[in-house]
UniProtKB/TrEMBL annotation:
<protein>
    <submittedName>
        <fullName>C6 zinc finger domain-containing protein</fullName>
    </submittedName>
</protein>
<dbReference type="Pfam" id="PF11951">
    <property type="entry name" value="Fungal_trans_2"/>
</dbReference>
<dbReference type="InterPro" id="IPR021858">
    <property type="entry name" value="Fun_TF"/>
</dbReference>
<keyword id="KW-0539">Nucleus</keyword>
Amino acid sequence: MGLLAPADAAFDPFDSYPATRLPRVHVQRLMQHFLSTIAFQYYPLDLNMESNPFVVAWWPLALADPALFHVSIQTASLDEELRARRGFPISELLMADSVSLVRRKIADSLLAVQDETMNAVVTLAAIEHGKGNFEASRMHIDGVKRMVDVRGGISQVKRTSPLTARMVPWVSLLVTGTPQFTVQDDDGFGDGLSPIPQWRLAPSTTELDTGPFSGADIDHDVANILSRLLYIFEPLEQPRLTNADLHDLTCFAVHKLLLLPETPSGGGAGESSRPAVSECLRYAMVLYMLVLHGTTYYSHVHLVMAVVQQLQKQIEALAESLHLHGPLGIWAVSVGMAAAADMDDACAWFVEQGRFLARELDLATWDDVLMQLQSVLWSEGNEPLFRRQWIRLFDTIP
């Protein structure tokens, strides 16, 4: 495969890239594979060679930084060797050299907190997690968290490298299954992940008691997040989100939802724990945003599996609730079906729930379902997958 024309400029005729223990031809092939394939696997939100951040921002840093360069071509080597199914000799060699080079940088207090160093370490965490080395992956995440702390927080990192500030918390969440960084408040104050401007502009509502939410006893924390997402996804209110906006919104909202305390702040009629309806909406919103966002930087399958299990528990807890037998139930089950589309057992469970609700609510077509979904929370970007899942479901009903 030849390089696409816009990437040709990334290759210097004098081969000015960091030295490795691999033959020049092999290195150049891995460089080509990174720029033509890996960059877009990592960041499918931008398929333009002239603007994809891994091509225009990451790669120039890698060409000048031996540690990041080794980590980068290691991702390309892993991809090649996974496809070939003949072991990982080159990747293991590059891993050993990558770790050695990263350790040298960490030994220098200035180099240790560079964007390049954080990029390299968080990528090593993803690589180790993908190989099943969870302890090593966690060690790298702990290391990059310390680097962020030294830099003054993730909001400070974002000032010099938006790509690093996006990748570090997102990959950290995906490989650990829990948020590793805090979030700013709804007005953008604090050192954590920042809300997008549309979130800050959204009306602050801590009570939802109309339409499908009437009498649902949704606590203030969940109602606030849901109301802001409703505002952002209202097509008459907001212009279409950019790819960067969508990622930042997803990262912020998912972190905020997963960081909610066990005891709600002022909602739920004095409940000491979050009401089941709120918990159902909470986990369904996490999955909804992950489905809308898609895979970026690293597979989110492990996180999705964990949240799917939580959503199933909440749906079971609401089995006798009137709220499950209406738009909220249809929406939560639809989100589950979409999120678990590649998980046979979990998807079958949600399909069975959907089949029951379809009969009970006399839903016979996708348009019937769509009306229910639009009354809760909806973005057109999710329609193809949701529609496909429901059409398959209807095909199983006699």
